[in-house]
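Many introductory courses stop at the sequence. We go one step further.
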Amino acid sequence: MDELLKQLGLAAGEAAVYQALLERESGSPAELATLTGLKRPDTYNKLAELRAKGLVEEFTAKNGRKRYRLE
């Protein structure tokens, strides 16, 4: 799957975050950083890149924290 996402134009970190979100309904940057092995600042950057491509959306959970899910 990772290779397919790279062929579709996603960088390695973007593909890792996208794949982690495929496996979950949503995730916080901290959860996604843990799942992907990326540092939290890198995870935020990858989420921003995926949002710019229209692949991920940000939303506010009931607890007031930002979470991300696939578009």
